């Protein structure tokens, strides 16, 4: 399960970078919103996979590495949420 979590974590990071590169088109930035909504679903799925992998980890060393990855994921998600909150308050 920890390998699945690792792959999901890399996919989540890649999709976040690709979403930042998207630009608004003529339909009121709807595509951008849909892309970030899909990313948030992937983020939650990845977080769930990480928690399952952490609970099923066989050794303390594995748990330590998974804990580090989980906290990094949570910090990245909070940073993106803060960026969104600041961006939406500036626009409004």
Structure write-up:
The protein is mostly helical and 92 residues long. 86% of the residues lie in helices and 0% in strands. The chain has helices at 2-21, 30-56, 60-91. Helix 1 runs antiparallel to helix 2 (30-56) and helix 2 packs antiparallel against helix 3. The protein is elongated and about 50 Å long. The protein starts with a helix and ends with a helix.
Q: Give the strand tally.
A: 0
Unreliable segments of 5+ consecutive residues: none
Report the C-alpha radius of gyration, rounded. Answer: 15 Å
The ordered string of helix (H) and strand (E) elements is: HHH
Rounded mean pLDDT score: 88
- β-sheet strand percentage: under 5%
What structural keywords apply?
mainly alpha, elongated, 92 residues, 3 helices
In terms of topology, how is this protein built?
Layout: H1 2-21, H2 30-56, H3 60-91
Helix pairs in contact: 1-2, 2-3
Describe the structure in brief.
This protein is mostly helical. The longest helix is centred in the C-terminal third of the chain and has 32 residues, at 60-91.
């Amino acid at each position: 399960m920890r390998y699945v979590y690792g792959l999901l974590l890399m996919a989540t990071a890649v999709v976040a970078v690709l979403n930042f590169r998207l630009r608004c088109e003529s339909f009121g930035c709807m595509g951008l919103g849909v892309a970030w909504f899909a990313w948030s679903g992937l983020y939650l799925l990845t977080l769930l996979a990480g928690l399952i992998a952490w609970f099923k980890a066989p050794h303390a060393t594995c748990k330590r590495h998974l804990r580090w990855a989980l906290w990094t994921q949570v910090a990245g998600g909070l940073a993106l949420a803060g960026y969104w909150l600041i961006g939406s308050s500036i626009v409004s």
